[in-house]
Amino acid sequence: MGRSKELIFNTIIIGIGKFASSVLSFFLLPLYTSILTTEEYGTYDLLITISIFAVPIITLLMEEAMFRFLIDCKTEQEKKSIISSTIIYILISTLLSIGIILIVTLFVNIPHKTLFLLYVIVSVLSSLKNALTRGLSEIKLFSISNFISSVLIILLNIYFIAFLKIGVAGLLLSHIIAYVIAILFVFVKINLKQYINFKLFDKSKIKAMIKYSLPLVPNSLSWSIINLSDRIVLSSVIGTTANGIYSIANKFPTIIDTIYGFFYTAWKESAAKNLKYDDSDCFYNNVYSVLKNFMWAVIIMMLSVLPFVFNIIIKNDFAAAYSYIPLLVVSIYFSNISGFYGGIFSAYKDTKIMGLTTIIAAILNLVINILLIKSVGIWAAVLSTLLSTFVVYLYRKIKLKNYIMLKEHVLSSILSIIFLGIVMFSYYSQNLVIHCVGLLIATIYSVYINKEVIKMLFENIKLIKNK
């Protein structure tokens, strides 16, 4: 199988495992927005964001180092040493972190403290599970396990929220139960005990892995800070109701991020493996061109479809989220292309630049939030997110020239911006005829710029069916 086809094949396999459940989860938004108050949803979103911030600190992202180092393994003994060393490290760091969190909760009031602590623990184990399956090239198992957890979360959410009506506690409990089942499924399926040998714990490997993963921590934390600062500033200055509205607005760009995530999971492995080929620059450029066209199409199509479905999906007081979505969607584009650049940096094991860029962005995000929150309210979070993601995109693009020259098609970029402007005008017009024209234009343009990818996707789907 060709390298490009292999990348698309793996992306489809990962997408099959997540896409159906992600779509179903999206269409459950009417359930959330009709039963939960904006304050309840804001509280839940804040707890999840805090946990996303905590997990990289607990693990130092050693699971990501494990994934990258497993790709280069030549023997089973090497695999066992890397996996054993990583698991020992993460178990020790998790136990120490639990103690620290318990001490902190004595002084800081955290809603649903016990469930929050359990959620953090299973999030650590879930990250380990995902890195293991990817590092061992068990892409199908990775996809199946995430499909299982996603479907379980959805079903449990319906049960806990609609029937038991336990609100935020139900949302957290759904994730905990689903993650535990998926984790056990994977550990049994790969027979984890065969890879664990405490005698193979290697301090030199741990040092090398920490050298790789440590710069990724500020990178991960800075993205978390960007999200967390939005939530904390909004909750503190305006209230959790504003955070609830902002969180719902973010649900729509998150769909794009989820779709991109299918590709990015496959891309990190593909970017590392393709370094050994003489034509790696050509491969990276081909993927870059295809990715940009695809991302533009997804953004333009979402903004052209939303005017028709937003009021059906979103209920009650959350309707105010409509205005904030377009700029957040554009922010996701910059974030995802930055992620593509990051995949190349990771392939070269140069992770320092990733941490530096997102630290700068996090500081910028916080400063803009603080300066604008009182004058423009929720728009402060939207604008700070847009500007901070653009800074990361631009800085990484410049630094990437040290490794590879990615070709930019100026005319294509100008056309994409023009069509984005047309769709945005349609989005805010509040006119049904203009909405229909916008959707037609967006569809024609999106299909045209992605005609080669569409053809290749159908070829790979046939290949999957034959297998």
Architecture overview:
There is one protein chain. This protein has 467 residues and is mainly α. The chain contains 18 helices and no strands. The protein is globular, with a radius of gyration of 22 Å. 44% of the residues are buried. The mean pLDDT is 81.
In summary, what is this structure?
The protein is 83% helix and 0% strand. The protein has 467 residues and is an all-alpha fold.
What oligomeric assembly is this protein in? single chain
User: What is the percent of helical residues?
Assistant: over 70%
- Radius of gyration over alpha carbons? 22 Å
In whole angstroms, the N-to-C terminal distance is 13 Å
**How does the major sheet shape up?**
none
Shape: globular
Count of DSSP H/I helices:
18
Class from helix and strand fractions: mainly alpha
Strand content: under 5%
How many extended strands?
0
Q: Average pLDDT value?
A: 81
Low-confidence stretches: none
Q: What is the H/E string?
A: HHHHHHHHHHHHHHHHHH
Key descriptive features of the protein:
single chain, 467 residues, mainly alpha
